[in-house]
Amino acid sequence: MASRSEKFARKPSSEKKDETPKIPEAEEEVIKFSPEEEATLLAESNDKKASANELFGKASFQDALDTYDAAAAACPNYLDYELAVLKSNISACHLKLEDWKEAVKAASAALDGLDRLRRKDEDGRLGVKEGGEEIEEIVSEGAAKAEDTSDRGKREADVERIRAKALMRRARARSEIGGWATLQGAEDGKGFPSFLEMVCGTKLM
Questions:
Q1: Closest CA to 117 of 90, 125, 172
Q2: CATH superfamily of the 37-130+152-188 domain
Q3: 104 neighbors 188 (Cβ within 8 angstroms)
Q4: Which uninterrupted H or E stretch holds 91?
Q5: Contact status, residue 146 vs residue 189, Cβ threshold 8 Å
Q6: How far apart are CA 31 and CA 75, in angstroms?
Q7: DSSP per position, 126-161
Q8: Could you tell me the mean pLDDT of each successive run of 10 residues in the chain, 205 residues long?
């Protein structure tokens, strides 16, 4: 005769475990705003960034960090350049606060945004639609020579300047985490500029 404990013992479940593969988390949804809404949000973000720059200059690094975070939250998430500037500045705040891991994370986010921006620019120059279909554009030689490239050149220079700052800040944080040997990973295996020994994070955008 079975004992009382045997009668009430929990029997192994005959049900099979759910072996359905987990679906990876979706990327952040990109919400496009109207030109008017975008301008309003960008103005709000820029105002907060200006306030954060002042706080950083006064060595109020935690307050500056919080204000940069607010500026990033206000900025439309498809404005890769503006967000890259904010993420790079956020990395500078973390460096001052000696939060090395968060400094690496923010600088890497800035670099990822600049990479997305570069891909968008390359697609635009090639005349590629969002669906991948290539558009053939015919431009006369005279029109091509007359094209004003000053704004494009300035933008590219700004992008490279932010990239250099983000690389330096990420390198500084990684060096604090794991020693100077980790500097070789600052640019993911590529050659590392000698100017990385300069003081990082002292000048903001």
A1: 125
A2: Tetratricopeptide repeat domain (1.25.40.10)
A3: no
A4: helix 80-96
A5: no
A6: 11
A7: HTB-TTS-B------HHHHHH---HHHHHHHHHHHH
A8: 46 48 57 91 96 97 98 95 97 97 97 92 56 43 50 84 96 85 54 46 61
CA nearest neighbour of 107 among 158, 168, 159, 61: 168
CA atoms of 23 and 101, how far apart (whole Å) = 28
Which token pair is 114? 């600049």
Neighbours of 42 (CB within 10 A): 16
Q: Residue 163: which of 96, 91, 111, 106 has the closest Cα?
A: 111
The residue type of 14 is S
Task: Work out the burial of residue 164: count CB atoms within 10 Å of its CB; fewer than 13 is exposed, 13-18 middle, 19 or more buried.
Answer: middle
What integer pLDDT is reported at residue 95 of this predicted model? Answer: 97
State pTM to two decimals: 0.66
Whole-number pLDDT of residue 198? 47
**In whole angstroms, what is the distance from residue 177 CA to residue 95 CA?**
11
Q: Are 68 and 94 in contact (CB under 8 A)?
A: no
Cα radius of gyration rounded to whole Å, the chain? 25
Q: How far apart are CA 84 and CA 39, in angstroms?
A: 18
Structure tokens at 174: 């990684």
Neighbouring-strand partners of residue 134:
128
148-152-158-161 Cα dihedral, nearest 10 degrees: -110
